[in-house]
Amino acid sequence: MFATISRPRAAVPFCLLACLPGAAFAQWVSFTDETASRLTLATVPANDGEEKDIDLADLDNDGDLDIVVVRKRPFSSPGPRADVLLMNEGGVLVDRTVEFGFDAGPSDARDVLCVDVDGDGWLDVVICTTFEDPIRLYMNRGEDGGGNWLGLADESAARLGSISQTSRKYCAVGAGDVNGDGAVDLYFSNYDGGDDLLYINDGAGHFTDQTQARMGNYANSGFGTSNVIVDLDGDRDNDIIKLTTLFSAPPFGLGVYVLWNDGTGTFNTFPFQEINATSPYMFLLADFSGDGAPDMYVVNDSNDQVFTTTGVTANSNWALSVATPTPAPRTTGFGGNLRAADIDGDGDIDIGVGSIDTDIANCGSSRTFCLLRNDGGSLADPVPASSPQNYNIEPHDFAFLDLNNDGCLDIFMGLCNGYKVFIQNDCRAGCNAADIVAPFGVLDLLDVQAFIGGFPAQDPIADIAEPFGVWDLNDVQAFIAAFSAGCP
Questions:
Q1: Predicted pLDDT at 487
Q2: Whether the bond into 439 is cis, omega within 30 of 0
Q3: How much is the average pLDDT of 189-201?
Q4: Are 186 and 201 in contact (CB under 8 A)?
Q5: Sequence-ordered list of residues with C-beta below 8 angstroms from that of 451, at least 6 positions apart, any chain
Q6: pLDDT at residue 25 above 50?
Q7: Which residues make beta-bridge pairs with 237?
Q8: Per-residue b/e over 213-228, b at no fewer than 16 CB within 10 Å?
């Protein structure tokens, strides 16, 4: 619980804000490394150096989020490794891989997705594999009569039908109902110049390859690393957004592509749409502008791009404006996995950008993890390159979750070497506006100095009132009111 203080408004006159000395760089959001007390490993070493991909899910339906980590030899080399199941036990991530049946053997995994494929209310685990390793499907066994979770069971052989593709080097999996029968179908992106895979669900969690019938040559992929199934145009059927990069795969060149669903789950009836990303590698959809329409963030081999929706014509055109996150010293080179969440609790969607490339061995480079702050739909990195924070390190993948149940989002990272758990110190939401630097939970002179130093420098930490992106009297008045009210 945050400590509070109470003092009259007059205790913080405006002249104090004008006369006290400035402060050094102040953090937008800050985190404490609590890995030692928040993570217990058993099946992998603490300095685990394998490639890692992560998904979050409440697998045991107890109300908190658990973590699945899939692993392989790093970068573009085959090398199956054991996967890891971390169960959230009172805010501690405990390795329960063996106890709960997530140990059917190593997988050459590049992605993982937790989704209920059989409609029983329990999330199952789909493992997207590469280098010809068979796709894995772990079914959730639910609970026994006493309410005890029974764990997972590998039912891949019984549920996953044969695949027609000769090259099966999948790098990403997306889920959604494409044929309108209410069942979750699966789409796998191929990154070896072969066909993607569209797996159709029979409604009970059994899948058949219907790629050619529903996609034709629209399944072609040249280094596909990302996809999403979404009703982009609001016509009540789910479209597919995919990318191809590094080399062409006719009819596709390099770019992000929208494949429009004709209403029956067929995707080559309408012409596809190309989104002119410069050199796309990963992307995600989120409503960054706050208008209810999905926008898109694209990780490029050069500058990243933010595409904002300006309109959609059904089965024809997704109209977008494009911008580059600025300033953003950590988003101008090879990047990796993406996650979107309201990190600071201010009501808009921020974004985390991973630094480790899937294909290029860039561990140990100058590239580090980046948190981009959303202010009114504009994404920027508020942390100067000269003042990196403890989370500016090298994750293969990461996830946002409220691990300690305090209302703030924390970060779990799977690094080039090992794992980290960062607990957020303060959401700075609502009345927390004045409590802007450590020690959090205490309103003191350090908070005043940080605001005074940040305001003339247009530091985001001093931008605490609308309109965001503008440092004006509204920010000053908001700070004085919150501080005077003793409201950290």
A1: 54
A2: yes
A3: 93
A4: yes
A5: 17, 23, 434, 436, 461, 462, 479
A6: no
A7: none
A8: ebbeebbbbbbbbbbb
In DSSP terms, 154 is beta-bridged to 138
Least confident stretch, 8-22, 42-56, 66-80, 417-431: 8-22
Beta bridge partners of 282: 299
pTM summary value: 0.84
In Å, what is the CA distance from 29 to each residue of 332, 411, 432? 22, 12, 12
pLDDT at residue 17, as a whole number: 38
Return the pLDDT at 426. Answer: 62
Nearest to 79 by CA among 46, 47, 49: 49
Chain position carrying tokens 């003793």: 486
3-state class (DSSP) for residue 477:
helix
The encoded tokens of residue 430 equal 């609502």
Burial of 54 per CB tally in 10 Å (0-12, 13-18, 19+): buried
Interhelix angle 445-454/473-484, nearest 10 degrees: 180
**How is the chain split among helix, strand and coil, in percent rounded to 5?**
10, 35, 55
Q: Which residue has the tokens 């506006």?
A: 433
- Token pair listed for 62: 């107890």
Residue 45's φ and ψ, nearest 5 degrees, are -75, 160
Report DSSP state, residue 293: S
- Examine the pLDDT at 166 and tell me if it is beyond 90: no
What angle (nearest 5°) sits at the alpha carbon of residue 70, between those of residues 66 and 75?
A: 140
Q: Is 173 left (phi over 0), alpha (psi -120 to 50) or beta?
A: beta
Residues 6+ apart with CB under 8 A from 211: 164, 165, 195, 196, 197, 198, 219
Provide the token pair at 467: 């309109």
Q: Count of CB atoms within 10 A of residue 396's CB?
A: 25
Q: How far apart are CA 222 and CA 87, in angstroms?
A: 36
* Higher-scoring residue by pLDDT: 407, 131: 131
Long-range contacts at 93-99 (CB < 8 A, ≥ 24 apart): 93/38, 93/39, 93/40, 93/66, 93/67, 93/403, 93/412, 93/421, 94/40, 95/40, 95/41, 95/42, 95/43, 95/44, 96/151, 97/42, 97/43, 98/42, 98/43, 99/151
Average of pLDDT values for 258-271?
98
What does the alpha-carbon distance between residue 367 and residue 355 come to, in Å, rounded to a whole number? 6
pLDDT in tens, 79-123: 999 999 999 999 999 999 999 999 999 999 999 999 999 999 999
| Residue 429 CB partners (closer than 8 Å, separation 6+) | 344, 345, 346, 407
